[in-house]
Amino acid sequence: MFKALLIEKNEEGQQRVSVKQLDEAQLPDGDVTVKVDCSTLNYKDALAITGKGPVVKHFPMVPGIDLAGIVEVSSSDEFKPGDAVVLNGWGVGEQHWGGLAEKARLDSRWLIAKPDAFTAQQTMAIGTAGYTAMLCVMALEQHGITPDRGDILVTGANGGVGSYAISLLSRLGYRVVASTGRPQEADYLRQLGAQDIIDRKALSEPGRALAKPRWAGAVDSVGSHTLANVLASTQYGGTVAACGLAQGMDLPATVAPFILRGITLAGIDSVMRPKADRIEAWRRLSELLTAKDIDAITTTINLESAVETAALLLEGKVRGRVVVTLD
After folding, report:
1. What is the spatial distance between Cα 169 and Cα 289, in angstroms, rounded to a whole number?
2. Are strands 2-9 and 15-22 parallel, antiparallel or unpaired?
3. CATH number of the domain within which 296 lies
4. C-beta of residue 286 within 8 angstroms of C-beta of residue 295
5. Which of 66, 166, 256, 322 might form a disulfide with 210, Cβ 3.0–4.6 angstroms?
6. pTM
7. 230: pLDDT strictly greater than 80
8. Domain containing 189 — which CATH number?
9. Residue 319 DSSP label
10. Whether the Cβ atoms of residue 220 and residue 139 lie closer than 8 Å to each other
């Protein structure tokens, strides 16, 4: 038996979430069984747990798009019992039981070896948010956005992706401007490395097709009018890495920034990313992040607190990363 957070739906379509004891025989198919040490709460997990987004594809479901743990049973040639592994994405917690449980049975193709530089808890403090932020930074680099090009804007700055994007960009020598709806968190954002802070209201309303050029590049986890305004105010030849939809999945923009300023909108998918990209992103993270960086961004909770914390996360009352300990 093992403990898990389980999302169920009754015949009337009402969702119920509770911590339950489950039998290993209930685990889905997979060639690797992992004893989960810790998981995380991401925005997508919060949507699944609260039922405020169509994240879960079938019920019952164990949420949790991230996990770190130790292989217990394996019929894979790549992993053996005792190996420390990490998983991010791949539809886990949406279509396949995820990491908010003491056990997980998974497809070995979804796993990578835990980086030696991090503990299991540190990998989950980074999680999909930090790994996605690294992919965004790599996209800016691949499009030639170097620190001497000018300011880099990070929207949704108090969230997990935003917090790590600020920390990583600052460590690489970029001048970072943070956009937030929580001005009381200014000291936190400056500690991460932001040099200027702007109110998200300056970007969240309908704006002009083309605005004064301000940003050499940007990392956006917000979407909708915010992303449209970021695009409209990006400098000639700039790049915007888009990875989220906290404001909405619409994009009320025009072609003007693309055809008049030659900017690039780089879409960042972290869920189905090829393994080689994942390994490279985690390699870069292990080079750039210190334990102090990770601790500054992280809160730790137990499984029983996950439902309450998920609601707070959607209300914008959680900053940085939330690690859920299972061991």
Report:
1. 11
2. antiparallel
3. 3.90.180.10
4. no
5. 256
6. 0.93
7. yes
8. 3.40.50.720
9. -
10. no
